[in-house]
Write a structure and sequence with these properties.
This protein is mostly helical. The protein has a single domain, classed as Orthogonal Bundle (Phosphatidylinositol 3-kinase, Chain A), CATH 1.10.555.10. Helices cover 64% and strands 0% of the residues. It has 10 helices and no strands. The radius of gyration is 16 Å and the shape is globular.
Length: 181
């Protein structure tokens, strides 16, 4: 999924914003969940993007760890960008399982590639963050709609910062994890 999103996402207007066919999504999700091999290259990239967001939403406790929710939300309240980046790197390395960190590198490699061609696909860091942030982190307990809305805004700001600074956070090689577009 990530490889397809990396290849096709940068040239796809509204990637992660538009949904694919709900029927196709459901059928493919059932096939994937049952272990059936699926050729996603034959499907709409929008269905693939929806499947990927669904995959992220189904990671128990979220990929950024709901237990660290308050810490992630407070990162952007810290001093300058350099301090924020150092704090994020520390949280990634010290508090998340290695598998989560590896997957995050690939996710942000894809998002960076899409953002670099935002004039073509209309998905700048802000737009991408709004679409993907709710799939990356959610609070450990449910709350009121107002509190949840405020939380989503904060997490979207965090994800936007991660996208805009991903090469400094994850390393410059993040831009070439999948090779050339």
């Amino acid at each position: 999924m990530l490889s397809l999103l990396y290849q096709e996402g940068p040239s796809t207007k509204g990637i992660f914003r538009r949904s694919g066919s709900a029927k196709t999504f459901k059928e493919l999700k059932e096939k994937l969940d049952s272990g059936t091999e699926v050729d996603l290259a034959r499907e709409s990239i929008f269905v693939t993007a929806s499947l990927f967001k669904d995959f992220l939403r189904n990671i128990p406790g979220s990929i950024l760890s709901s237990q660290l929710c308050d810490k992630w939300v407070s990162v952007l309240d810290q001093g300058n960008n350099e301090e924020k980046i150092k704090s994020i790197q520390r949280w990634l390395l010290e508090h998340l399982p290695r598998a989560n960190v590896v997957l995050l590198r690939y996710i942000f490699g894809v998002l960076h590639g899409i953002e670099m061609r935002s004039e073509e696909n209309q998905m700048n860091a802000f737009n991408l963050a709004v679409c993907i942030a709710p799939s990356l982190l959610w609070p450990p307990v449910s709350s009121t709609p107002d509190i949840e809305s405020e939380f989503i805004k904060k997490i979207s700001s965090l994800v936007q910062f991660l996208i805009e600074n991903c090469c400094r956070i994850f390393g410059d090689e993040i831009a070439s994890l999948f090779g050339e577009i």
